[in-house]
Every structure is written in C-alpha cells, then in structure tokens.
Amino acid sequence: MAYIDFAAAHDPLLAPAPRHDPVPATAPDAPAPAGQLSALEWSVVAVARGDRLSSLRAPSRLSVAMGGLFGSRPNPRLADPQLEALRRMAVLSWHHGYTVPTSALTAFTDAGYTMAQYETMLGSIAAARVARKQA
Fold it and tell me: Distance between CA 49 and CA 42 in Å, rounded?
C-alpha cells in the first residue's frame, strides 16, 4: 500500500489561505494591554464597517417621515457613550481613512481612548481597506 506525505509537499495550493480578521481572538472580558483595544471594542470597529456616514447625524424630519412610510432602518447608535465614540471614529475611519476631523479626534480622546489606541485601530482599518481593494 502506498503512502503520500501531504505535510512535506509544500504545495502552495495545500497551504491554508492567509486571513485578515479585524477582531482578534481573545476573551471578551480580558483586559486589553495599554494601547490595545478589547475584543468588544474590536467588534464595534468591525460592525462599524457597514455603517453609513449618515448614521453619525441625527435623522432629519424628512427621513423620519420616509421611515414611517417605508419602514425605518435600525438605529446603529450604541447605548454606551464610550463605545459610541469608538463607533463614530471607526465609521469615519472606514470611509475617510486617516483624514478625520479634529473635532472627532478630540471627542474620541475625551471618551477615554488614547492616541495609541487610535493608531492601532487605524492600522487595522487601513490593512482591511487595502485587502478589500486587492481582492
């Protein structure tokens, strides 16, 4: 009987595909090291990828009326003010990259986040945006 050792083949077709996951696999209640985001915060960044820029503004009277006629979209805003500040910054970063308004950056740091956390988040978002354009 013949034996084929697939582990030693080093065939690129058999190698697992590289994967970019913006949400690191850590315990949700584990404290994040300085300059890092927790798993819950990374999930907020990942969910913000699908949010529109219009989710940052209060709905106008016209959009409220149209929502009454055709059905409204779910409100993406978060109840926790700190996580909402993170979501707002993530939405801006997903849409505009590194060019976010200074007022948004001030609100982000006023919510308790550091510039190191901002840079970590932007690095992850930039890598995901590049990977999406290459795909």
Answer: 11
Q: What pLDDT does 92 receive?
A: 94
Global pTM value: 0.68
Distances (CA, A) of 131 to 20, 23, 25, 123, 124: 8, 15, 20, 12, 11
The Cα–Cα gap between 118 and 86 comes to: 9
For each successive 10 residues of the chain (135 residues), what is the average pLDDT?
A: 59 57 55 78 92 80 79 77 93 92 93 93 91 80
